[in-house]
Amino acid sequence: MKSYNKITRLLIAIVVIALPLLSSSYLSANSNSLMDQQVSEYLSKKKGEQVLLLKQLVNINSGTLNIDGVINVGKLLEPEFQAAGFSTHWVDLPAYMQRAGTLVAERKGSSGKKLLLIGHLDTVFPKDSPFQKFTRTGKFATGPGVIDNKGGIVVILYALKALQSINALKNTDITIVLTGDEENNGKPVTISRQHLISMAKSADIVLDFEPTVSGSASVGRRGTTHWLIEASGHEGHSSIIFSDQVGAGATFELARILDELRRTMNDEQGLTINPSTVVAGVKASYDKDTGIGNVFGRTNLIAKTAIARGDIRYISEKQRHRLITKMTKITQKSLPGTKTNLQLEQVLPPMPTTQDSLNLFESYSIISKRLGYGEIALLPAELRGGGDISYVAPYVSTALVGIGASGEGEHSPLEKVDIDSLFIRSQLAALLILELTGP
Ligand SMILES: [Zn+2]
């Protein structure tokens, strides 16, 4: 009897301890599924509206240099963000940059993490591009900027609207920065990216809504450095090339350098080097800003000048330093009668992968699994180009990249969006933001 009593008391104790545990886990699972359902219902009802807004945004040309167009895209969005409970303002860039500036939408609070959401208003398609209109064909739609990045913007907007509809934005601290010159930054970038960087410094987490690549997301991006190699040699008649008098000529010197670069660098993981343009002749010049080269030469003359221009992309500052050391050595070797000048300019720092970013990615993937979309694949940094996220990466420990609309063909007249992805990515973004900003 005594022992029975003991067991009974123990059982009661277990039940008393376990009940609140059971009910709290039940409740949180239940509140997850309730929130999931409410967000999904809201977004489902707004599918038509979301696509219509995307269409309107795409049909306004906003090539980076079409300042009025970029501003008009922003103007269409301002009341939308205001209706979702955000205050909006423009951050202008100095007039000499000839860029539209940046649209900021924000709300202040103290619940959970401070978030910075990044997108851009401009596209690579200028005002006179033949590719101007949104065209829907079944499950897809084509149009300039339809995923890069107007699809991403409507994903941000509707994720926030969905959260507002369930009163989940209360006391959150969220800033949305939509730059007007992502595709062709105002120079110098130390000034055109200054505001973005200062906002990133005060954020805990950055979410970047550039296009989703094949259902994946990433937590790193490669850095980019532009280079220009100019080889000079002696002018002379072709018949005396390789003589002590004139040497090898500038073209052979440049060819040697490019080939050595290819052979020494093509097997390093995460690293690419691409000579995009070459001009060589008795007279040769190249304008870095316009990309236009001028050249004069004859079959019987040795080239005096040979210029190559291109970029290198790398996953870390360490890799960049290693590469630059190699490039410097290779260019300094010089064939007889030639000398070479190497110019380097880092245009984008690399975004290193951190453990905090990997954890954030994991949370995103868990939400996707919970909603029945399966695990999200982690896209290696080398499969993504640079972007605005890269400028802020050195100041942020936690970031998730490429969670905007899905599709393909960005930067080409084949750019298209998978319409369903607007709904899915908005759902995922809303629930991730909810989790991050929760008390
Ligand atoms: Zn983009």
Entry keywords:
439 residues, alpha+beta, Aminopeptidase, Alpha-Beta Plaits, 2 domains, 6-stranded mixed sheet, 4-stranded antiparallel sheet, 11 helices, disordered N terminus, binds zinc ion, Peptidase_M20_dimer, metal ion binding, hydrolase, Peptidase_M20A, Bact_exopeptidase_dim_dom
Write the layout of secondary structure elements.
Layout: H1 2-45, H2 47-58, H3 67-83, E1 87-91, E2 102-107, E3 111-120, E4 135-137, E5 140-142, H4 150-165, E6 172-179, H5 189-192, H6 194-201, E7 205-208, E8 216-217, E9 223-232, H7 249-265, E10 272-281, E11 283-287, E12 292-296, E13 305-314, H8 317-332, E14 339-348, H9 355-370, E15 377-378, H10 388-392, E16 399-401, E17 407-408, E18 416-418, H11 419-437
Helix pairs in contact: 1-4, 1-11, 2-4, 4-11, 7-8, 9-11
The structure holds zinc ion (ZN).
Zinc ion binds at residues 120, 148-149, 182, 210, 387.
Explain this structure.
The longest helix is centred in the N-terminal third of the chain and has 44 residues, at 2-45. Helix 1 (2-45) packs across helix 4, helix 2 runs antiparallel to helix 4 and helix 4 packs across helix 11 (419-437). The chain has a six-stranded mixed β-sheet, with helices on both faces. Strands 4-5-18-17 form a four-stranded antiparallel β-sheet. Helix content is 40%, strand content 23%. Strand 17 (407-408) and strand 18 form a beta hairpin. The chain folds into two domains: 46-221 and 351-437, Zn peptidases (Aminopeptidase), CATH 3.40.630.10; 223-348, Alpha-Beta Plaits (2-Layer Sandwich), CATH 3.30.70. It has eleven helices and 18 strands. It has 439 residues and is of the alpha+beta class. Bound molecules: zinc ion. Zinc ion is lined by residues 120, 148-149, 182, 210, 387.
